[in-house]
Amino acid sequence: MKKTTYHLNQQLPKVAYDIFVKRYSLKNDKGKFVETPEDIIQRVVNVVSQAENDYRDGVKVEAVQAGFRKIMLGQRFLPNGRTLANAGTQFGQLANCFVLPIDDELGKTETGIFSILRKAILILQTGGGVGFSFGRIRPKGDFISSSKGLATGAVSFLKIYDTAFDIIGQGGGRRSAAMAVLPVWHPDIFEFISVKEKEGLIVNFNISVGITDEFMRAVKADDWFELINPHTQKVWRRVKARTIFNQIVKNAHHNGEPGVLFLDRAERDNPIPNVYQLEATNPCGEQFLGPYENCCLGSINLRHHLKTEWQLARNGSLKKGSIDWDKLAETIHLAIRFLDDVVDTNRYVPSVPKIEEAARASRRVGLSVMGLADLMYCLGVGYGSPEGVELAAAITEFIRYQAMLTSIELAKERGPFPLLKGSVFDPEIVGTNKKIGRAKGWQPKFGYQVKETFGRPSLNWKKIVQGIRRYGIRNAALMTVAPTGAIATVSGLEGYGCEPVFALSYIMKTHEGAGDDYRQISYESALFEEALKKLFQAGYRLDEKKIFEDVRTAGSCQSIKELPPIIRQIYRTSSDISVEEHVRTQAALQAFVDNSISKTINFSSRATREEVAKAYLLGWRLGVKGMTVYVSGSRQEEVLTKKEETMDFRPKTGEDDQFRLGRLTKSKMPANICPECGAVMQVSEGCYTCPVCGYSKCDS
């Protein structure tokens, strides 16, 4: 049989190649990069595939390695940034996402406030991001009998954590973001909601309010809501639910924070409710995790699973493209096997043994997607349109089905995850309405009925139920949708994660040294450029130069009347998509994703607070697990902008000496300015990614 060779180096554009090497290559003792992208992938494959030696399932390690190389060198799948960077190094810690518990005690116990702070710092040093719930900390002003003093409250300890993380980052460590969650019933909720109202005070945390169904029902009914002291479990005070809700809306409208997490919705998908209750997520919100749990992620590049692209006939009729479902199924099977191997080869954080214990007990993995918007461009489907929502659901259901099929097969070969008994996947109750303790049997009921399958093979969900009853399942959770910042950049994608494309064209001015030395960089959508070529081949005579001039002004093609309506319907950008379309797309994805989703609901600069409130209510009603909103222009340090707002990073008058990147300290660096090259970074769910050099604060 002829051996197939994959040459990633030849496929990557130079910019992506350089970023890949800079972000993930090992260095020699002189600090020089010593690996090509192919070398990096081979190193990762060699390390991760060693787990195959632990099992005697008749599959040769060499065959598995060939499969892993095939999907990674073929740009069909990439693991998260920590796996690419740390596999085979002294750290060997391959996970991005962690959640640690915090109890209302300073440090005598292992879950005390300062005991957990130490553990968090050790995780941050390996490049992981950590989420916390501060919900068990007694409220500000509560009497402490042991010291006869008054408690300083949850927010005071959030500030201590933030300061500690900032100092660690300035000391040369990788700046990983963190997530702070406070349940909506906590008495300190008003102070928490407003803690990031003034930019720059909390710099290392995203913040989210943990919302309950009870609270949302009270909001709808304009009813009273009780705030509970977590230390005594007594009612601290009663307030109108809408008073809290309106404060959340006000601050989110102001600068995008806090986000909201719908805790009860997440708990309904908790695979092991008999072990813990979910209360916090990782920094970008896509992973609800129990105490000490972590998750290794990897993403399928949807753009590389096309069979055909859309074509335009000379009569103007559009023939849609098609998905290579068989190829996608093969990628899913190999990717799940890869991620399950990561659970075994991950060296975790040796000084915090509970992390490895939790990982091996549930064997969570997070298979994500990236390039959903690119796929839609190539198929000829408008993101956010009814057809686009259907496509998102059809793809995600297919991935969930194939992922569970693979996990069942792995359970047959290697055994199910150790906490299977008493979980929602307990063979005694799976496929039924029966309960064991707090766990109700898992069933393939997803809250969204896919009507248009886009040529997708049929899915036999009864086979999944029967498989779990017979063999169990290898992984307690399988899917997520991560922001995929850096790995999407090195893959040459225009749409990160499940997000729409930000803009078809934009101009950036980046700092290239001291003084007035700035460089202007123009970015244009290669996929949109291909569309114009297809129009030319179909007989359309358009002024391509003028079209791109217009697109650079607005970032969008919607106002260009010379373009056929079908092109404007397909090549929609984030600002062209209505809030309801954003939310409905997220809900369609969420229906089949057993974990959560990193997605930002974008509003125009003219959006009102009432519109933000309606988005939250719609998201809750449709069953999303979390939401982040962003009103264009609402942050002082703005992300990429359009409409003749060319990104000029020169300081305002009188600030020149302070702002020059050569003199600006990390602690004063605006959150969305890349610390490596000075460009403005794109943002999604608190994950900042530089489109110029690939720097990412989340590095998923």
What radius of gyration results from the CA coordinates? 25 Å
Helix vs. strand class: alpha/beta
Total strand segments = 27
Percent in helix = 25-40%
Can you walk through the features of this model?
With 700 residues, the protein is an alpha/beta fold. The protein has 23 helices and 27 strands. The strands form 9 sheets. Strands 1, 2, 3, 6, 7, 10, 13, 18, 23 and 24 form a 10-stranded mixed beta sheet that branches. A 3-stranded mixed beta sheet has the order 22-21-25. Strands 4-5 form a two-stranded antiparallel sheet. Helix 15 packs parallel to helix 16. The longest helix has 29 residues.
Q: TL;DR?
A:
With 700 residues, the chain is an alpha/beta fold.
From the structure above, extract its key features:
700 residues, alpha/beta, 10-stranded mixed beta sheet, 3-stranded mixed beta sheet, 23 helices, 36% helix, 15% strand, disordered N terminus
Write the layout of secondary structure elements.
Layout: H1 8-11, H2 14-24, H3 37-48, H4 61-73, E1 77-79, H5 81-86, E2 97-100, H6 113-125, E3 129-133, E4 143-144, E5 149-150, H7 154-170, E6 178-183, H8 189-193, E7 205-211, H9 213-221, E8 224-228, E9 235-240, H10 241-255, E10 259-262, H11 263-267, E11 280-281, E12 288-289, E13 294-301, E14 306-308, E15 311-312, E16 318-319, E17 322-323, H12 325-345, H13 353-362, E18 365-370, H14 372-379, H15 386-414, E19 435-436, E20 439-440, H16 461-471, H17 485-490, E21 505-511, E22 518-524, H18 526-537, H19 544-554, H20 565-570, H21 579-590, E23 600-603, H22 609-622, E24 626-631, E25 647-648, H23 656-659, E26 682-684, E27 687-689
Parallel strand pairs: 2-3, 3-6, 6-7, 7-10, 13-18, 21-25, 23-24
Antiparallel strand pairs: 1-13, 2-13, 4-5, 8-9, 10-24, 11-12, 14-17, 15-16, 19-20, 21-22, 26-27
